Amino acid sequence: MSVHSEPPPGATPIPESLRAQLADFRRQLWRRKAGEAALAGVIGFAVSFLLVYALDRLWPTPALLRFALLLAGASLSAVFAPYWLHRWLWRHRRDAQLARLIARRFPGLGDRLLGVIELQNQREHAATLSPRLRAAAMEAVAAEAAGRDLAAAQPPDHHRSLRFAAFACLGAVAAALIITPRAGSNALRRWLLPFSNTPRYTFTQLDQPPDELIVPYGESFGVTLRLADASERRPATATGRFAQQPPVTTGRAGDSFRFEFPGQQEPGVIEFRLGDARHATRVTPVQRPAIESATARIQPPAYLGLPEQSADLSSGRLTVVEGSRVTLFLNSSRPLRDARFGPTAALADVSGAIPAGFAPAEGTLTPHGRALVTPPLEVGAASFEVPFAWTDGHGLSGGDFKPRVHSVKDAAPVAYLQGIDRQKAILPEETLDFDLLAEDDFGVKACGLEWQGTLTRPGPDAPARGELTLARGGPGQRRSGGPLAFSPGALGIAPQQLTLRAWAEDDFPGRGRVYSEPVTLYVLTRDEHAQMLKSRFDRAIGELEDLARRERNHHEENQRLERLDGNELQSNDARDRLGVQQQAEADNTRRMDDLAQRMEQLLQDSARNGDIDKDTLKKMAQTLKSLQELSRDDLPGIDRKLGEAQEPTNTPDKARQDLRDAVAAQQQALEKMQKAIDQANDANRRMEAGTFANRLKKAAAEEEGIAGALLAAAARLYGLPPSELDPADQRLLSETAHQQADTASDIRWLQEDLGHYFARTGEETFQRIFQEMRDSKIDLGLEDVRNRLMLNHSSSATGGIPNQAGAKEWAEKLAAWAKRLADEQNAGGGGGAGGGGASAEDQDFEFMLRVMKMVQQEQDLRSRTRALEQYRRTFEPPAVP
Fold this sequence. Notes:
By secondary structure, this protein is of the alpha+beta class. Helix content is 50%, strand content 18%. The chain folds into six domains: 16-192, no CATH class; 212-286, Immunoglobulin-like; 291-380 and 389-400, no CATH class; 414-524, Immunoglobulin-like, CATH 2.60.40; 527-680, no CATH class; 692-844.
């Protein structure tokens, strides 16, 4: 295109050579500057792309920066190029504009060219300018221009460097697209579309790295990043940094990097660097899901009849009876995603062994929000542990919760008797009051008392045997029983040895009764009871004599202290001796009080016996009165005086007077104790005389029992040798022979005691009985009966053969002697009991004795009535609810 200045009409045009030369200069200028503008635009776009490509290798270039780079690259074409073209093309389209450009390089030539171009635009006037001269001037300038190379006046040529730069940039772009096509194409898309969601491409590619993590609160946690299969680079190490904490560097293991971070309590962001890859993961610490509450629903075995029960499991321990079914209910701190239980693990018992036959249970649980419910778990013989595992919506697993279910066997019930001695001796009409208690871990079904008798001597009667049901329990009633009154006489139990046992039953299938420790009850005849009382009285007298000896020793020591003067009595040594004496006196007071209580009980039991004469009882009462006065008044008074003698505030005279009073009171107490001993010995002698009659009665009763037992079994015993007898009959003969030997031994001792008693007392009645017994040779006769029993000569042993004294005849003799002794004793001791010579004191005591017996009889009657009422209820069927 030729763009030049056209001369106005009538003007002189510039020479054609000069015009051609200027047109050529203009073309060169335009071509050069247009090329430069195009190259600059190419360079701008290429550099903008390369910057995005390079920055993406370092970090995810923000969209705004990419947009700014795109604008910067486009500006070289969209802004700089038009400006460049306007400057060099549009502003240099006219000849005058070219002349000015040439003037920058050739000032003279440029000025002349500018003058020539201006001359051609002037109109001619004959008066001012000659056309010929103007043409000549133009030709001269054209000739000068023709001799010059106007190309030298062109502006500096950047075309070569721009072209090189453009080719270099394009080469770099091509290299990026060819060598790293994925990165290049990714950068191209991100460059061309800066606000698109195209992610930055990295040579190190991660396989679905987490953008957010929920980690346990305050616990160390790990993060694993895995390289994608398409990753072009696989760096050996990687770095992760939580907030401003020290970075954590780890090595590659296979295709994975495992980072371990310390426990965190505040949210933060972890910046990962793996080669050119950068990834940010937000971390939020959250408490692990925990079990806030746990309960158990227990279904006991059907045989117990118990309803379902609930139990708290917060302690992690549950105890249930074997055979139960247990359902566990758990509530977590937040909703759960999944959960499971088991497998249950058996626990060792106390011996360290695991019961056989345990079947582990496990399963998956379906959470209902925060609630978990297990299926019913069978509880066998083995205790077990139930492990739980759960995960919440964040993927956090729960803590360690392993409740233990301890299996216990349904223990046997326990029955026991309270308020009764392990051994007790009573009369048949007496009543024992005690408590019968039964306990069971899951409920007492019933409880009661059972008795089994053992005959102490042969006889036709069978041993007593019976039972009563005291109470019937029910499911869950763990204690049962209550007070119980037992009267042998009310139940028709003759004197014998009884074994009492409480029994209890529970609902466990196939389990029988469980019994308590036995209580041995000796139901005595009045004769046996009197002998027992005699033994107790002997022990009481022995204790009273021992107390008297102690008190006498204490009295002697007090007399030694009494010899000290007042000042010596207030010395530390004397006070210590007085303190010892006071303590000894207090001990004697306690022993005397205990002895008085036992003597009172002995008097009551003696009055109950009925076979002990009233004079003996009177002397026992006098002894009791003395003991009570000693324990209540006399001995405490001595104790008090000895204490006053030790008072630091005492004067010497006051101390001596107090001690003197104590010694005088002690002397009176000793005299009263001696009097009580004499009264007790007198009563004991009378009781001993009475026991001879009782012992004879007992022996007579034993012989009667032997005769009765033989007569009852006569049809089975007569005519058979011992070897052919039934085993039960053989045992009967053996027991009767043994009893006969015991009776013979008792009679020998009785004869000896009668002789000693006569020697001490000189009473003729005892001497006559003793002589008659010796003359009758009863000891040999009883031994002969035993020998006949061993040979099964039961008829002669009983007394059915003339001239051969048997058990029956000896029983009659013994009973006759017992009656004579009793009659003689009553006649000798009764004095004026039936006449008018009895003293008022004797009458008062006899009245008191009768009243006491009446009270005892009334109490016995009420007690027997209560015992019979309890026994009657045993035969009543239980009430139907």
